[in-house]
């Protein structure tokens, strides 16, 4: 796409050919009213407010594509008359309850009514009862709804679930006399508005979706709001604290909306989380899992002294997970440098090993892609991740690419996922055998590889055989030569090479998402190397999803050890001495919504997060200071992040955290990658042992860790989650008790619960509930284990 | 979004620093300031006025409070009252929170929740009268004329918190039933010609 110039209201604007006029205007700070359009989603043309004049002809700027030399007028008398009539009609029968509405002034209907100076009403139609309903975490009040269809659009084009749709309103028909009295576009809009209302697509009483809440975020009026937030606070009292999603590695921009708790308690409380829906969707974990703070009365000096003494005398290992900031990781690394502690973090260790091996064939220490590149591509492959729950934002980018760029995709995963299947008709869901990821990557190399190294090319050739097949019947029967690829057999999936040409037609940009299943795979070394080859010898840009919030940051900053020593200090991990933000350790630590610092996101970006709530106790920096370091605040370390490993020496306070009007992610800074020496050596596919009854290690939707489970809206007890197929086959019901028995005699008795968002025969165990020791079945961290599951009578 | 507010970690947000006139440094400067203030003779001016007024005859402007009380004008802004709906007797307040927002001394706090009829319910309402400056903005902004100023200017009490809770301000039910709640003519009430400003909306019924 080439750069062009268009003229909007006399302002010359640079743009890309084919970009929507509305987006160009927004990027250049020119105001065109629009209620129904959402950036990165397809235009719905429901509101018709964005009417403009393009080279003397009327057009809707949300779906008018820019051409070089176009001249656009956003406002003239006729257009204004039309817009005024539209706004007047939106106000017909809209309840006058602005005083109590949860939108509390952040209302686009209110804004545009003021903007267009609507001070009287000349339209009318009889209203009908429209009772409000609760859809789980989301409350829908149809009487406030203006049917702009933003919720429907975002759910389909961004989130990929199509859980909402417009349904029949069943109200009175619009009288014909209005046709003469009302301007053309306003009449058309009204006619459509009067016929529809938003409803659950499946026809059920409640929403059965992943509950990301993005629909309530995009709603321009107070029709869709969080049920929990309803009538609790007004928008204007809430202070927006910009932060980064602390639960998963997308580290999306979120705002904690904070206010004093209540009349008698002046301490701050988070009331909700909001996001910049135009450019940064967030998942349900980030939206509803906000109140995981660790409240302490004050500094517990006794406990602090005890911990410091233990560290000074006994501790030789520090174990932690990756739900920490870059600064804390640096403090731990500095402690290691000074006192020689072993740093143990299983999650980041596996990821680091994987990245190192990846670099050994790709030649770069970081992967090439990010979520933006996924979103912009038109052919996406996902391997080794249950994308809907592991990294919903990667799923959103995947779906957005499919729906906006007429894209196609392949989803390789042993666990079938109806939600992902629903992304697009052009998505092929391939539920391969457990452990066969090597064959998947070889298959990708086989299909997409260009100028592959001779050895690899030869090895790939060995899978192909040509056989003769008869097509047609009777006289038309013909014998043709068919190429057979035995990789499909190894994977245990149907040969899709016939469908491939159709999927690949007109595709020019490719993305590959690789995930958590690969890092602890018994052949992870070879998998990483194969991924490196894919980045080097195919058109794919690769994204390797960090498994926890700051796994990428920790793996770069810390020199990690594999083995523990004699006496371990655990940070948010249970150990001999435990520092914990979960509140059950020897010394309390601030949770991630009480800390300022930076994360390294999966977009390879160092993004800042601010503290939403105060913390009165000790933090890791206090411990470091006691052990001979000197920094007033934890964020003093931001500028000290290792530049030789790709960070920049930038102070925390100068890091931006926003999206620009044009949708550029102006947050923190990008990590720089390094070129490393590489070789094209990879191993052949090794035999994997077939599993009789595999069990997967994953969390249900919205849950990511013990931290999300602390939030009051997400708090639940963990169970064994299985598809309804699985339960039917074993004559179990949701809620029954089962015994899971793994190798080495490990046993767990727990409830089994149906998860309608998976299918197939592989159930999963979650990690978010600390009471269930799920990890005991997965001793090496590999996410599949062979177990036996029996119902308890 | 500007992030400056987050970078000042040593003071509470919104703190404004005031650069006062410089204090005299040396003894000589102190003397100079004291001398220049002393010779102005402002003290004598005041004393003279008091003495003259003291000896004038028929010059009493005070009333014998508390036996005798002055009538208070409707625009006087004394301690607040919360009114009830004339028809149902329930709270007029809808919990919009505008009074809390507009309050310039930040002394109003309101707590709302979803009640069992899925309506917004005011669960708590307080005014900190230690901070209230009786500016009347709350009464003026209230869309329902729910919060008004009464004419009760006698609010001495042994507790600072008295008068400040919802129960204290809301018209007592017995008083309401005895029809003693008066419509408020003062600050923020509708003008007599308010009806003439209303544009009517057509209704299709």
Describe it.
The complex is a heterodimer of chains A (about 800) and B (about 200). Chain A is α/β, with parallel strands linked by helices and about 800 residues long. Chain A has a domain at about 695-790: Barwin-like endoglucanases (Beta Barrel), CATH 2.40.40. Chain A is built from 24 helices and 37 strands. In chain A, the strands form 11 sheets. A 5-stranded mixed β-sheet of chain A has the order 2-1-5-3-4, with no helix packed on it. In chain A, strands 15-14-23-24-25 form a 5-stranded parallel β-sheet. The N and C termini of chain A lie far apart (about 65 Å). The model of chain A has no long low-confidence stretch (mean pLDDT about 95). Chain B is α+β, with helices and mostly antiparallel strands and about 200 residues long. Chain B has 6 helices and 4 strands. Chain B has helices at about 25-40, 40-55, 100, 135-140, 165-170, 175; strands at about 80, 110-115, 120-125, 145-150. Chain B starts with about 25 loop residues before the first helix and ends in a 28-residue tail after the last helix. Classes of the chains: A alpha/beta (about 800), B alpha+beta (about 200).
How can the largest sheet of chain A be summarized?
5 strands, mixed
- Using only CA atoms, what is the Rg of chain A? 28 Å
What form of chain B results from the Cα inertia axes? Answer: extended
CATH topology of the domain at 80-189 in chain B: Alpha-Beta Plaits
Distance between the termini of chain A: 65 Å
| Record field, number of beta strands of chain B | 4
Strand content of chain B: 5-15%
Strand adjacency order, main sheet of chain A: 2-1-5-3-4
Q: In which range does the helix fraction of chain B lie?
A: 10-25%
Order of helices and strands of chain B: HHEHEEHEHH
- The outline of chain A comes out as globular
Major sheet attributes of chain B: 2 strands, antiparallel
* SS summary, helix count of chain B: 6
> What proportion of the residues of chain A is helical, as a percent range?
25-40%
Main sheet strand line-up of chain B: 1-4
Radius of gyration of chain B: 26 Å
First-last Cα distance of chain B: 48 Å
């Amino acid at each position: 796409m080439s750069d062009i110039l268009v003229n909007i209201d006399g302002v010359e604007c640079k743009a890309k050919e084919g970009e929507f006029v509305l987006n160009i205007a927004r990027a250049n700070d020119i105001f065109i009213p629009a209620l129904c359009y959402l950036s990165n989603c397809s235009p719905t043309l429901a509101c018709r407010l964005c009417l403009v004049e393009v080279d003397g002809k009327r057009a809707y700027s949300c779906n008018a594509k820019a051409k070089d030399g176009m001249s656009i007028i956003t406002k003239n008398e006729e257009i204004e008359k039309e817009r005024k009539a539209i706004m007047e009609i939106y106000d017909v029968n809209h309840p006058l309850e602005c005083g109590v509405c949860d939108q509390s002034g952040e209302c686009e209907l209110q804004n545009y009514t003021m903007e267009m100076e609507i001070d009287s009403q000349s339209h009318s139609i009889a209203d009908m009862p429209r009772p409000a309903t609760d859809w789980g975490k989301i409350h829908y009040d149809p009487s406030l709804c203006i049917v702009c269809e933003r919720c429907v659009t975002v759910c389909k084009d961004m989130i990929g679930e199509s859980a909402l749709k417009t349904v029949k309103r069943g109200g009175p028909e619009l009288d014909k006399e209005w046709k003469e009295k009302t301007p053309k576009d306003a009449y058309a809009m009204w006619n459509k508005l009067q016929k529809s209302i938003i409803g659950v697509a499946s026809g059920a009483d409640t929403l059965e979706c992943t509950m990301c809440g993005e629909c309530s975020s995009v709603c321009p009026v107070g029709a869709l709001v969080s049920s929990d937030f309803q009538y609790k606070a007004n928008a204007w009292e809430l202070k927006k604290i910009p932060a980064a999603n602390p639960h998963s590695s997308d580290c999306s921009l979120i705002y904690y909306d904070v206010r004093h708790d209540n009349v008698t308690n002046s301490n701050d409380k988070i009331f909700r989380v909001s996001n910049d829906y135009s450019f940064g969707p967030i998942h349900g974990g980030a939206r509803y899992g906000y109140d995981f703070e660790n409240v302490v009365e004050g500094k517990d000096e006794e406990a602090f002294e005890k911990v410091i003494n233990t560290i000074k005398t006994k501790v030789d290992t520090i174990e932690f997970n990756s739900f920490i900031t870059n600064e804390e990781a640096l403090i731990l690394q500095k402690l290691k440098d000074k006192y020689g502690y072993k740093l143990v973090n299983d999650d980041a260790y596996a990821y680091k090993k994987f990245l190192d091996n990846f670099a050994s064939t790709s030649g770069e220490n970081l992967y090439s892609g990010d979520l933006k590149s996924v979103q912009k591509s038109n052919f996406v492959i996902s391997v080794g991740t249950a994308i809907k729950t592991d990294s919903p934002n990667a799923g959103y980018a995947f779906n957005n690419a499919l729906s906006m760029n007429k894209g196609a995709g392949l989803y390789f995963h042993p666990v079938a996922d109806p939600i992902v299947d629903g992304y697009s008709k052009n998505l092929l869901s391939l539920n391969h055998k457990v452990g066969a990821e090597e064959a998947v990557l070889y298959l990708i190399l086989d299909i997409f590889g260009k100028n592959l190294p001779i050895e690899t090319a030869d090895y790939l050739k060995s899978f192909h055989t040509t056989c003769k097949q008869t097509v047609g019947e009777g006289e038309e029967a013909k014998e043709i030569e068919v190429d057979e690829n035995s990789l499909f057999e190894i994977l245990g999936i149907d040969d899709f090479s016939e469908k491939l040409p159709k999927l690949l037609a007109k595709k020019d940009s490719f993305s590959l998402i690789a995930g958590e299943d690969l890092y602890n795979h018994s052949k992870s070394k070879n998998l990483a190397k194969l991924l490196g080859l894919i980045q080097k010898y195919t058109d794919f840009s690769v994204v390797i999803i960090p498994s926890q919030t700051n796994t990428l940051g920790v793996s770069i900053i810390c020199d990690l050890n594999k083995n523990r020593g004699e006496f371990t200090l655990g940070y948010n991990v249970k150990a001999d001495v435990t520092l914990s933000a979960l509140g059950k350790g020897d010394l309390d630590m601030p949770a991630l919504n009480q800390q300022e610092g930076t994360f390294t996101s999966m977009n390879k970006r160092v993004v800042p997060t601010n503290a939403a709530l105060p913390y009165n106790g000790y933090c890791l920096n206090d411990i470091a200071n006691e052990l001979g370091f000197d920094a007033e605040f934890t964020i003093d370390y931001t500028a000290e992040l290792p530049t030789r490993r790709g960070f920049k020496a930038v102070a925390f306070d100068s890091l931006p955290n926003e999206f620009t009007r044009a949708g550029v992610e102006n947050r923190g800074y990008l990590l720089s990658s390094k070129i490393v020496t590489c070789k094209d050596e990879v191993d052949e596919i090794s035999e994997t042992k077939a599993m009789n009854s595999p069990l997967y290690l994953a969390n249900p939707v919205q849950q990511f860790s013990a931290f999300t489970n602390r939030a009051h809206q997400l708090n639940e007890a963990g169970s064994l989650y299985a598809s309804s197929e699985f339960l039917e086959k074993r004559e179990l019901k949701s809620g029954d008790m089962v015994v899971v028995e793994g190798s080495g005699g490990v046993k767990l008795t727990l409830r089994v619960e149906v998860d309608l968002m998976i299918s197939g025969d592989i159930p999963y165990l979650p990690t978010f509930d600390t009471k269930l020791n799920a990890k005991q079945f997965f001793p090496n961290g590999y996410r599949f284990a062979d177990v036996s599951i029996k119902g308890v009578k | 979004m500007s992030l400056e507010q987050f970078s000042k970690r040593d003071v509470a947000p919104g703190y404004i620093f005031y650069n006062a006139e410089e204090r005299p440094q040396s003894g000589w400067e102190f003397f100079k300031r004291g001398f220049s203030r002393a010779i102005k003779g402002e003290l004598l001016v005041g004393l003279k006025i008091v003495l003259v007024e003291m000896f004038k005859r028929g010059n009493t402007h005070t009333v014998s409070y508390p036996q005798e009380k002055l009538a208070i004008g409707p625009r006087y802004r004394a301690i607040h009252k919360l009114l009830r709906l004339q028809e149902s007797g329930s709270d007029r307040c809808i919990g919009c929170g505008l009074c809390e927002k507009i309050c310039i001394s930040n002394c109003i706090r309101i707590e709302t929740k979803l009640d069992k009829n899925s309506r917004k319910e005011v669960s708590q309402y307080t005014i900190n009268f230690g901070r209230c400056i009786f500016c009347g903005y709350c009464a003026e902004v209230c869309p329902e004329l729910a919060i008004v100023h009464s004419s009760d200017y006698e609010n001495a009490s042994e507790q600072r918190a008295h008068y400040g809770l919802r129960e204290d301000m809301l018209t007592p039910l017995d008083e309401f039933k005895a029809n003693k709640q008066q419509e408020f003519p003062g600050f923020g009430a509708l003008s007599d010609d308010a009806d003439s400003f209303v544009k009517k909306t057509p209704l299709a019924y």
